[in-house]
Design brief:
Blueprint (H helix, E strand, L loop, with lengths): L4 E6 L3 H11 L6 E7 L3 H7 L8 E2 L5 H4 L2 E4 L6 H10 L3 E4 L2 H5 L3 H9 L2 E2 L9 H8 L3 E10 L8 H5 L11 E7 H7 L5 H9 L7 E6 L6 E9 L2 E9 L11 H14 L7
Parallel strand pairs: 1-2, 1-4, 2-3, 4-5, 5-6, 7-9
Antiparallel strand pairs: 7-10, 8-9, 10-11
Length: 271
């Protein structure tokens, strides 16, 4: 069966800590946690001190030196540093700041040279396997509508730059209509699902996105409509926000764990 795959986790927020705990606990076969990274390294060391096998706490750029797989759960601002180091070492990068990946298109080209691999988890979406299958033919149209409680969008660059106040809404407000690239740029911590959908389908310019701040809901709702030469699909996901970070859903960490699990599983269901 060979040696266990070595996993490093960048960022110990709501998602990263959950993933690190799962790998450390042996919940994912043939994988072991070897390193983590966080902005506050001393605090990170304390948080992983009681793990079954406490990992090293390293700078972002050093994770790929010791790991086969680097799971990126860090702020989008440091994506470039981490991703470049991982790709140059020929490792597997599993990014959650998928919107940031759209701003670094040369990383994909570079990965084909260094032997690295970039695996994007499905995250808070549903049906990316359907989108990928339809993309083998011709996709005519893809639209994502994302609705979040106002607190899940607060502070996003698009809102700040355009003076959009969502602090006291009494009814739903559409705060953006545009491409997946527009959404990823304007809401880097909120709608990485738009970038994942674009990468699986027809690209960031043709994938259309609406972002709504909705005070009437307590879930993060993602709805995808797709038309192609092989069929039409409408898919909706109602995600429970994370207790630690309302900008993301509880399912995102589970998606990363499931993606890691399928990398060593004897049998995999779904494309």
């Amino acid at each position: 069966m060979g040696e266990d795959m070595r996993v490093a986790v960048a960022g110990l927020g709501a998602i990263g800590m959950r993933v690190a705990q799962a790998v450390d606990a042996g919940a994912i076969g043939r994988m072991r946690l070897v390193a983590v990274s966080a902005n506050d390294r001393e605090r990170a060391a304390r948080r992983v001190a009681d793990f079954a096998t406490p990992p090293q706490v390293l700078p972002l750029g050093d994770l790929a030196e010791v790991a086969d797989i680097v799971v990126e759960c860090a702020p989008a601002a440091v994506f470039g540093e981490l991703a470049t180091a991982t790709i140059e070492r020929g490792r597997c990068l599993m990014p959650l700041s998928v919107g940031a990946l759209l701003n670094h298109p040369t990383l994909i080209e570079r990965a084909s040279v260094t032997g690295a691999k970039i695996i994007v988890p499905t995250g808070a979406l549903i049906g990316l396997d359907t989108v990928r299958a339809m993309a083998e033919g011709t996709i005519h149209e893809v639209t994502l509508t994302t609705r979040k409680p106002p607190g899940g969008l607060a502070g996003a660059p698009h809102l700040v730059e355009n003076g959009i106040d969502i602090s006291d809404l009494s009814e739903p407000l559409c705060v953006l209509r545009g491409s997946a690239r527009d959404a990823a740029r304007g809401f880097p911590a909120n709608v990485n699902v738009a970038a994942a959908l674009a990468l699986a389908g027809i690209g960031p310019e043709r994938t259309q996105v609406e972002v709504w701040a909705d005070p009437t809901i307590d879930r993060n709702i993602q709805s995808v409509t797709i038309r192609s030469d092989s069929g039409e699909a409408t898919m909706t996901m109602r995600n429970i926000p994370s207790d630690e970070n309302p900008r993301t859903g509880r399912i995102v960490a589970n998606s990363v764990i499931a993606t890691l699990r399928r990398m060593t599983a004897a049998m995999v269901a779904g494309s």
